[in-house]
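Problem 3 from the worked examples.
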Amino acid sequence: MIITCPQCKTRYRLAEHLLKDQGGKVRCSRCSHVFQAPPPAAAGRPALSEQGSPPDQGAEEPFRNETEPNASSAKKPARRLSLLLLVLLLVLLLIGAGYLYFPQIKSRLPFSGDASQPGSLSQKEDSALSDLSQITFTDVRQYMVDNEKIGKLLIIEGKAVNESSVPVEMIKIQSEIFDENGNSLQRKSFYCGNTLSLFQLQVLNQKEMESALKSKVGVLTNNSNLGPEQEVSFMTIFYNPPEAMAEFSLKVVQATPVSQD
């Protein structure tokens, strides 16, 4: 049967079995107007229009019966939830891919501070390690990151290796940057075992990053009870470093032997 909305004049096909013998309330899906639909017998058979085609031709889907559940409406929340889960999965995949391939796409630090020029800092040799010389470095690298709250960040990271014959813990490193004449520009000391992801480096503020990197024993206590030939990651950050920087140095300033008692 065909029913017409009295407010917007939109016509719909309505299955007769959805209405009771005395009719029922329906809601127009176009203008949301609620009105009383006549009983099936009162609607009768539709007449031809002036052009000779049935008036129900091109009519929209049936009204939602106010007394019957709407199956299509019930499916909408499930569809929206599925779409949201798909979007979240894609975002997680993109973040994982960025972290995995970050070494290949990282920015290189220029000597002059001009991002259009190639080049990177060179590591300055520092032999003043005294009795801590058995703690060595491997996989050291430096790169620049643009932080949305702070600006430019110089990241220096790598791994400290315990080449001594006893376990150590709370390894502390001093990092220093110099200009091309060897003049010291900035210096920082930090504990091993704390690192941040590329995403965190891009969005966290300075206070949040310093808080995440300050643990003496590192994340999951990986800077404690470091046995012979074992290694631990490290990371330090220079915020908006001077453009004159040309090289950096790393020096172990603390490594506490673990008691064998």
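Problem 4, a separate protein:
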Amino acid sequence: MADLLQVEALSAGYGEAVVLTDVSFALAEGQTLALLGRNGTGKTTLMNTLAGATRQHGGRIQLGGVQLHRLPSHARAEAGIGWVPQERNIFKSLTVHENITAVARPPRAGSTTRPFTPERIYALFPRLAERRGNLGTQLSGGEQQMLAVGRALALNPRLLLLDEPLEGLAPIIVEELLRAIARITRDEGLSAIIVEQHPQAILAISHQAVVLDHGNVVHSGEAAALAAQPALLDRLLGVVREPGAVHGG
């Protein structure tokens, strides 16, 4: 299986401050990568760097043969990056339908995934279909997150970046989002990188896992293998459990 994304010796940060140092990993076409680590270890900085929102100090980022690190952020979207940042960045003064159609673009030549039309996005997120005429300000936090994901899908990206998509959401919304993410990635083969504070939930729908610590890659391997080693996962994430505590999923 050919690599879609190649990150080599990446160093990046904000201004002169370097957060990521010598980060390297690859992601194959049609696979999902769980990006894990404690708070402040560089996960969001890495996602922002892939999207072109930080200062890159060194290294290379290649997406499907395109030298992504040479492109500004708007051109990275055209090259195939669909980015859902923590802030969601929906257009709150537009309706749900206007949010989706304002950024929609046709699939790229040779795309192996089904096109993400507005109708298909509504099928993934029925709540959005019910609220297609509502403004962004009239949506709940969970509905705004669904809309943010839907907007990214409307770009028909090659690689979907999801930065803590489940943060602060009610359990019922978390389950809906997880089902939708699993469907478009695990079942339909859209490549994705997902940052999440609930590792077992994301490892269960991912193929690969990368763990960051102090801006460096400290673990890289199969997601299932890491999920099957809760003690190793706890150590990598700095989790300290009470004696006799049960590892949750």
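Solution to problem 4. Residues 80-194 form a domain with the Rossmann fold fold (CATH 3.40.50.300). The radius of gyration is 18 Å.
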